[in-house]
Amino acid sequence: MTLSFGRDIFMTPGPSIMPDTVLNAMHRAAPNIYEGELVDMTRSIFADLKTIVGTNGHGVVYICNGHGVWEAALSNVLQQGDKTLNPATGSFAHGWADLARKMGFCPEIMEFGKSRGMEPAKIETRLREDKSHEIKAIMITHTDTSSGLRNDIVAVRAAMDAAAHPALLLVDCVASIGCERFEMDVWGVDVVVTASQKGLMTPPGLGYVFFNDKAAKIADATPKTSPYWDWAPRVKAEFFYHQFSGTAPTHHLFGQRAALDMIMAEGIGNVWNRHAVFARAIWAAVETWGSDGPLYLNVKNPARRSNAVTTILSDGFNCTPLRQWCEEKAGLTLGLLIGFDNYDNGFRIGHMGHLNPPMVLGALATIDAGLKALDIPHGDGALTAASRIIANS
Ligand SMILES: *Cc1c(COP(=O)(O)O)cnc(C)c1O
Predict the structure, then answer these.
(1) What is the 175 CA–ligand 1 centroid distance (Å)?
(2) Is the peptide bond before 15 cis (omega within 30 degrees of 0)?
């Protein structure tokens, strides 16, 4: 029999769980889109987002998802035929590179596999070889949502500096902003793209790009093919609607404001720490299951694991029935595996945004019950291991 009466829980890596406060803030009549409340509120949204991203640079919003801001960022700083270097640790890096190719740029993939992380020394070597500075940008995902791997942006910047290479550093932070520590200016990142629906706890539809003066200058000298993606008029914005190239995404902005109120009240440092604790609880549970069964964490090195999404593999063991059991029997939706040869051979747990210990421990307990119900071999004590992490936090 199904036991899933109650509130369904989505532990997928985006969209994340939308807080009621956010949904309620969106449930209202349309506002004046020319002056007043919305104008002031949008200003405050950027002020808070810049705190979270760690920048004093420029910020723009597009009505789009993550793929939209991928395109927005590239169209501002690259010209037809420009080369980019794309160190890859999962499918999102390949997705962004594919999009770059379709836009007429020339991405060069540097493959680092799905579970180990980048080797900055190799990036440095490649950049040193590029004596004529043909590579115009390095494109990196901070957290790759398919592999659950978090890349070391500081190390990549250091490699670029060591090679004295002038390329722009573009970072995809769709999965990490609001979950993981990120310090755009301190880390020397030139362009950041992110979106509303993951750590920022707002329905999909707002895409953000942050960029520094170096990127702005390059953009000024780049011929634009798309007026919609062009960030310059949005930054200058003589009239409010220029910020959006048309009608503002009114209700999304109300939702985003409510989500940012929650993040600012908790404090971004606490938000990052909370994600780190939940991530460690989930890893402890998976490692315990794996002590006597097929499940294991894709990323071995804890320092390279994302605090927002965990990828669990099963070496040929079919995990689809487990996901289905959790969803149908218990109302817990887990992420399916993407970017691996067979999506049956594992699953992902999204742990981003609006989560507390009962949600995380409840999800782990549900998976534990599913393993038992389906006779999937697993070590005992996963919940004890996870609750110990919560207890000691
Ligand atoms: C979710 C995600 C994207 C894509 O976002 P969409 O809104 O689905 O277009 C891009 N990059 C990363 C790292 C993501 O996690």
Answers:
(1) 7
(2) yes
Burial class of residue 215 (count of CB atoms within 10 Å of its CB; 0-12, 13-18, 19+): buried
User: Could you tell which of 69, 70, 92 is best to mutate to test the pocket of ligand 1, judged by most ligand atoms within 8 Å of the CB?
Assistant: 92
How many angstroms separate the CA atoms of 101 and 96, rounded?
9
Position of tokens 């991530």? 279
pLDDT(316) > 90: no
For residue 87, is the peptide bond before it cis, meaning its omega torsion is within 30 degrees of 0?
Answer: no
- DSSP code of 234? H
Taking alpha carbons only, the member of 99, 81, 93 closest to residue 136 is 81
Residue 66 Cα, ligand 1 centroid: separation in angstroms?
5
Structure-block tokens of residue 311: 């990828």
Query: Is the CB of 141 inside a 6 Å radius of any atom of ligand 1?
Result: yes
Q: What's the pLDDT band for 188 if we cut at 50, 70, 90?
A: very high
- For 232-256, b where at least 16 C-beta lie within 10 A, e where not — what string? eebeeeeebeebbbeebbbbbbbbb
Convert the pLDDT of each residue in 77-98 to its tens digit. 999 999 999 999 999 999 999 9
What DSSP character marks residue 174? T
How far is Cα 355 from Cα 53, in angstroms, rounded to an integer?
A: 20
Flag whether pLDDT at 56 surpasses 90: yes
How far lies 96's CA from each of 70, 93, 138, 260, 268, in Å? 7, 5, 11, 27, 28
Q: Which helix (H) or strand (E) holds 373?
A: helix 357-373
DSSP bridge partners of 140: 171
The string of pLDDT tens digits covering residues 118-177 is 999 999 999 999 999 999 999 999 999 999 999 999 999 999 999 999 999 999 999 999
Which residue type sits at 91? S
Checking if the pLDDT of 1 tops 90, the result is no
Classify residue 183 by its DSSP letter.
-
